[in-house]
Amino acid sequence: MRRRDFVTLIVGVAAGWPPRAHAQQPAKIAHIGFLGLTPAASHSSRIKALRAGLRDLGYIDGKNIVIEFRWAETVGQLPELAAELARVNVDVIFASSSTLVEAARQATKTIPIVFAAHADPIGIGHVASLSHPGGNITGRTMLLTDLVAKDLEMFKDALPQVARVGIVWNPTTPSHPPAVKAVKAAGESLGVSLNMVPVTTVGDFDGAFATMTRDGLDGFLVIASPVIVSQRDRLAELALAHRLPGVFATKDNVEAGGLMSYGPDFDDLTRRAALYIVKILNGTKPADLPVEQPTKFELAVNLKTAKALGLIIPESFLARADEVIE
Hints:
Number of domains: 2
Mean pLDDT: 89
Shape: elongated
CATH architecture of the largest domain: 3-Layer(aba) Sandwich
CATH class of the largest domain: Alpha Beta
Structural class: alpha/beta
Strand content: 15-25%
C-alpha cells in the first residue's frame, strides 16, 4: 500500500467548520428532505457521512431532526418526488448532484436546497456566483468540468499507450454537456482520440461496452453521475469481461474493481455539506452562503484489476497514489 497526500489547491470560499460545542440547538424538530436517485443501499456511505456531519453539529436523526428520504429509480421520477418534499414543506432539501438539484429547483423557489457534489452550479444556472449564490440554492461543488480533463490526463500518465478512449456520459445529466466539451479539449491537447458513448439508463451499459469493444478502444473514461455510483459493481464486471481499463471520478468504483480514479472525497463533501444545512436551520439564507470548492483530490489505483487486464502501471505513477489496492 502506498499513500501520499495528493492535494490540489483551488480557490474557494471556506464556509468554516464550527466546534461541536458551539452548534446551536433547534427550537423544534427540523425536517430535512433527502432526494436521491437509485436505491438507498447504493449510497449508504453518503447517508452515513451526512448523518455524521449533522451529528457533529448537534443534530441527530430521530431526536431533533427527521430526514425524509425519497428515492427515484429513474431520472424521470425525480420531479414528482421533489414536488412531494415541497408539499410536505420540509425545512431544507438535500439534493447532492446537479440532476437532483434541477428537480428540486423546479419544485420550489422558497425551500432552501443544499447540494454536496454539484458538477457545475454556475454553468447550469443554479447559482449566480460561487461567492454570492443568490436564490435558494447553495452547497459544495465537485468542479466536474475541470475534473474530467484531469481524469483523462491521469489515465494517459498511467497508461501511456492509450490512444483511443471511450467517454461514457449521460445526455440527461445537466452537467455532462459542458464536461464533454472540456474532455474533448483535453483529448486534443493530449493527442488522444475520443469516442462519445452516451448512456441514459442502466440498461444501456451492456451495449455501451459492446460498442467500445467492437470499435477497438484502448479504454474508457466515465463522467461522474449518481447512476455510475449505483452501478459500480456492474461497471467493474463489464470492464473486466471486455478487458477494458477505465478511469472514474470516485474511489467507490475502484474499490468495486474499476482500474483507477481521480477526484474529491465524496463522503467528505457530503459530511461538510451538513454545515450548510445547520446554518440554514439556524436562520442563514442560502443566498448568503458561498459555494465551497474541494481542495483535496484523491488518486486510487486497483493493482489487482491491472494484473487481471495484463497492464503494468509505472512505479512513478503508483508513488503518486493516495491508495493502491493490491
